[in-house]
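Researcher: We're teaching a course module on how sequence relates to structure. For the next exercise, students receive a sequence and then see the predicted structure as tokens, so they can try to spot secondary structure elements on their own. Here is the exercise chain.
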Amino acid sequence: MRISVLIPTWRRPRELTRCLAALDAQTRPPDEVLVVTREEDEDTPAVLAEPRGFELRTVPVRTPGVVAALNEGLAQVTMDVVAITDDDTSPRADWLALIERRFAGDSGLGGIGGRDWVHHGDGVEDGERETVGKLRWYGRIVGNHHLGTGSMREVDILKGANMAYRRTALDGVRLDERLRGSGAQVHFEIDLSLMVKSQGWKLAYDPAIAVDHYPASRPAGEERELPSRSALLNEVHNETYVLLKRLPASRRPLALAYWMAVGTRRAPGAAMLGERLLREHDRTAVTQAFRAAMRGRLAGLRTFRDAADD
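Model: And here is the predicted structure for the students to work with:
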């Protein structure tokens, strides 16, 4: 079994250097590493020119965003398995060895992911969650990939910072360019995961397959914490559009009703708006989040309808 590692990057030379050093330290070396970068990224070529203990290929891409980067990179993969990670991660030494073992042990396994240990300064976000990577029947996503414990189990969704796919499971797969955002394009991995599952492949999560994640800052408009209205609108648009595509037609109205009536803390619907207004002091920020979430839901619905008409 041969393994490619695919890393999209954009102006993060320090983070990319750390990621490539971790790949150099793997107990099971990668057969090749593909780094997707844009010509405008002046800092990355110097990092890629340093000697490594594996074959490293640069894949150029002109269009901004992780969707275009991954589409370009996946088109270049010829190995049996492609392991995908972010440039701000540091895969642990047995990362590829465990990925290889899991695929070798189950021919029906299309994708495998694991825990990303999230670092904040000198601390590590810790906790334990049994439920990881699930899509509830009424349209709610449960992530928790950074907190999962226990044994390997089947899931619905893998996380972009730590996921690997059998190449045959990706035959004919192309990430949707309708997803919004100029960089992160949040929730692309939901679309990819559900696309692979819809073709009859299993997805699994194994917390032993681990990377250390040092979340790097994102450009304005794509913030992780305390997102701007535009960042939240794009995030909610992507989630809504992707799930409307992937949910059975009979469940779409229920999902829309749930998102509008309840929602989540990050993207509140009416009920969550009321709870946050009671608990939080900054009512203006809560109201703005609600408005951005509602606009994002409607925008995602419009994109879904437009795509269906194409």
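Model: If you want an answer key for the exercise: The first strand starts at residue 3 and ends at 8. The two ends are 39 Å apart (CA to CA).
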